[in-house]
Protein 1
Amino acid sequence: MRYLSTRNDQCRAVDLAAALKAGLAPDGGLFVPAKLPDFPADTFAGTGTLPDTARQLLAPFFADSRLAAALPAICDEALDLPLPLVVFEPQKSWVLELFHGPTAAFKDFAARFLAACMARLRATDDPVQTVLVATSGDTGGAVAAAFHRRPGFRVVILYPDGRVSARQAHQLGAFGDNIHCYKVQGNFDDCQRLVKQALNDPALAERLALTSANSISIGRLLPQISYYAHAVSQLTENSEKAVDVIVPTGNLGNALACILARDMGLPIGEVVLATNANQTLPDYFSGQDYQGRPGIETLANAMDVGDPSNFERLAWFYRDRDLRQAGIQAVSIDDATIRQRIIGTWKKQYMAVCPHTACGLEVLAMRRERGHHGPHLVAATAHPAKFEGVVEPLIGQPVELPPALAELMNRPSRAEALAADYSSLLKRLLELGQSPI
Ligand SMILES: *Cc1c(COP(=O)(O)O)cnc(C)c1O
């Protein structure tokens, strides 16, 4: 498989290893596979585990790369996480719980997969690689957990001070060892700007092997395709019907994976993007021109995105077709409705859900009311205990921490304050570069 840039067809196609190492294409575009493989709809019916599905599904994407032989081991190592399909309404709707990894959000699948790939691409005598990541809460933890104590890597996390939940902040600073955590005196956009500036600084590149693990890496998109393929194959085993899938959406990484699973032949019907009050995607799919804008703050803060970076990839895949006629919908859910849905789901199903998942469940309820009676799958993106400040007052109960998260909460946590200017970051990075890990 060759990988192209979304921006320029003339850009030299590269193999997976090169695309993973580079992160972004040289022209600033995102890497995309030249061609999607096709699978008969029942390919994964009855297969055992998620790693089993992923090995077969991802093999074409790894073909001709020096990682190809390692794919089975990468899948076993990275994707061996619990993936419960919970019945939500008898026979008709299911919740796919993607939050049983070490940091209790779906991003664990992708971060672990990317780390497993990068570890295998590294030669033993390569210099230590510094993985620089800006986070609004969940990405940083997932990347830290995936690289924690991995020889040859250190992680530098930048998060906006005071703008992540107390539990998220504790978690980010609790890893220690090769994970370095900075609370930036600014907002998430400042963190992202600092990361971009560092990654584009040729003078720094000479002194430090710097890389990124942000959500536009192709190594994060690929593993996410596999859990949709796996889940819908289990649900459709005894029926012919495709499943409509609802995905809580911010940067459009998770939902794009679902759309690609459908385009590869798997039994998925409509894909519905559930956004929070950030309206960019609902506006686009209701017929307006695409208009990126600053993100606004909501209760579902991991989806506070006004210019989803993976839109460029989605548009590329549909460059010859009308994206608005492609079986994709987008629906925006405001904070008041998120609160009501968290309360309602607790009362009716006795299920505590995070604010992101609540957007998805609200969209499910809307569709049922409008007469969509077919089978539906809703992706549950984070454990409710990660957003206890929102969820617990609404349901009037404490939410028990999953064991991995509880363990992190019991460790001491440390984050250094960092001014939101590049010279401060540069100074820290160069100091780290002098130290052994
Ligand atoms: C990151 C995140 C999302 C948004 O996923 P995208 O791939 O950016 O669309 C939704 N929910 C949670 C809990 C997240 O951490």
Protein 2
Amino acid sequence: MNNPFLDRAAPQIAGLTPYVPGKPVTELERELGITDSVKLASNENPLGCGDAARAAYLAEAEELGRYPDGGGFALRAAIAAHHGLAAEQVTLGNGSNDVLDQIARVFLYPGGESIFSEHAFAVYQIATTAVGATPRVAPARDYGHDLEAMAALVSERTGVVWIANPNNPTGTWIAAEPLRDFLSALPEHCIAVVDEAYFEYVEESEYPDTSTWLEHFPNLIVTRTFAKIHGLAALRVGYGLSHPAVAELLNRVRHPFNVNAPAQAAAVAALADREHVRRSLAHNRAELARVRDGLRALGLALIPASVGNFVTVDLGRLAGPINQALLGEGVICRPVANYGLPHHLRISIGLASENDRLLAALAAVLKRTA
Ligand SMILES: *Cc1c(COP(=O)(O)O)cnc(C)c1O
């Protein structure tokens, strides 16, 4: 786009394009004139949130005239207790994306660099570029993070290394031992961010809980979110866990009142509702297996050894036209060409009926376009 205001913007803004979210259901339904579309495009929990979180949210409706607790006392205390950490180690975000942005604004600036992997979550590039720092992208290995290639990019200019574990959109994950070795070798002037947005979905025994590593790595920041398994994507709540001194810096740039009051209340309730997490995990485990089988039965290859509440499937040809045809069937998935994966489509695990719709629509589309 030829934007007449671009030359007045900070120079790095020219290098940015807006994050592309999943297409909203309302938009597709308006376009197609239908009312039964299914959205499998944003890795949301198809069960939504638990009853306790919803009740806590609704109770806040009586107090909408009041500012929230800007320090997030109750939520930070609940998160700290959940992890066995101190409240001073918790930084709240308007979604964990907000925490990623806080990290970039504190530790990156023009002349500094951040390191991430090819195919990694798009926000690392956006947050880095937005503050005028330079992204250094390590080539992926088998779609996943190549920690050796990432380590080779470390220099005195490195401010932040972003690690998505597991990664979105590839679902690839890093085991405890190589990740610990990588962090041990990282110079202390580099902040290491381990983004664990899908933590609760991962059942592999070698998958690490890096929130337990903070005492060994003062330069480590772990991020988590309430948007995925807790089913509170609409409310925008996430958090960072770190050394208290790192949290203190993040809090210097955190917008006041960045997490609204109903969101804080719902998140406290969600964290305590282990039954909803268990139910959501069991649903995902069963339906993920079924969707994977269904996709393989269509002759499609999946990214190997992936985890999470989504699958990324290799269509063996450009995914754009297939995605368009699926939209015509009322099924919204996520093309990932902007992640360097033009032949792949990312599909979130939905309700059983939604997954059936996806598999039937994809079978029909593939047949039609064969
Ligand atoms: C979904 C996701 C997040 C969470 O973002 P929120 O801002 O908390 O909604 C963070 N990182 C990755 C890799 C994700 O896929």
